[in-house]
Amino acid sequence: MNITTYDLQILVSLVYFALTSGVLLVKCVRPLRKLLNYGKTASTGDDGNSPPSEVIEIIAKYAVVRKSWFTHFYICLFTLSTATYFKACHETIVGQSDEATYKNLLIINKLLILQGARRTFESFAVTKFSPTSYMNMTHYLVGISHYVLIALATYLGLSGNCSGSAALTIVDYILIAIFGVASLQQFRAHYHLAHLVKYSLPKFGLVASPHYSYEVLIYTVIMIFSTKNGITLTSIMFISGWVFVVTNLSVSAIQTYQYYQAKYKEEFNLKWAIFPGVV
Where are the beta strands (DSSP E) in 6-157? Predict the structure, then answer.
């Protein structure tokens, strides 16, 4: 049986749907919450003493990897996105693509390369991973799946839209500038978190997890580039990826917000977890 690009694009969207549903399931079913907790949020919440909770407790305790394995996510993104840049297109596909679509996907590819390179650098040079901090294997697998999927979505989009690249527009420059600002601000937030005195409260002014807010903004730019020339199966992959990022980071931000509330009490006075005026 031959697997076509169309089949793989459908598969990417379906897997993203499954990942998003899984994150929501973990959030809604109390005994499962420990599976996606990590670091400071790993000990939050009362999940009861029912038999299912005991099973989850065993999985959460023993099926773990070091939190420093977060680095693998960004190495994966950078490596796969770079390979895509050099391998996705070798010749123009006459009659099946247009220059604008190819340009947008090529921009997405380059932005993901930059994102992967920056986050890899941060992981080695900025972030200070505690040797005693762990995350559950399910969290690790969900994360690595996202970066494989977003790189695969780019590859599949480019391989089906090889064409001469059109010139950048004003909208392109604005979106790229937003990506740049969001990346810089996310770096500043990560730098601040990495240099906190242990057990001290981060000094953020608007939301509890601005680094998550900027991550969502980064993927919003990528999603917009994928839809600029209409909704296609390619853009649906990126929309699915964006929905996953928003859902996953919102859940993580809410957990972090609740941790700050419980630990710092009156000292913590921020109103929003990730999106001002919303969550």
Answer: 64-66, 134-136
- Spell out the residues 6+ positions from residue 21 whose beta carbon is closer than 8 angstroms to its own: none
What distance in Å separates the CA atoms of residue 159 and residue 157, rounded to the nearest whole number? 6
Give residue 87's pLDDT band: very low, low, confident or very high (50, 70, 90).
Answer: confident
Give dist(CA 220, CA 241) in Å, integer.
10
pLDDT digits (tens, 9 = 90+) for 10-41: 999 999 999 999 999 888 877 666 666 655 65
CB 70 within 8 A of CB 143: yes
Match 């240099």 to its residue by tokens. 195
Contacts of 99 (CB under 8 A, 6+ apart): 163, 164, 165, 166
Side-chain-side CA neighbours of 144 within 13 Å: the count stands at 14
Q: How far apart are CA 108 and CA 165, in angstroms?
A: 13
Q: How far is CA 254 from the centre of its chain?
A: 16
Of 15, 1, 2, residue with least CA distance to 152: 15
What's the predicted TM-score (pTM) here? 0.90
Provide the b/e sequence for 127-153 (b: ≥16 CB within 10 Å).
Answer: beeeeeebbbbbbbebbbbbbbbbbbb
One-letter-per-residue 3-state SS of 50-73: CHHHHHHHHHHHHCEEEHHHHHHH
User: What's the first-to-final CA gap in the chain, in angstroms?
Assistant: 46
Question: pLDDT tens digits, residue range 147-203?
Answer: 999 999 999 999 877 877 789 999 999 999 999 999 999 999 999 999 998 778 999
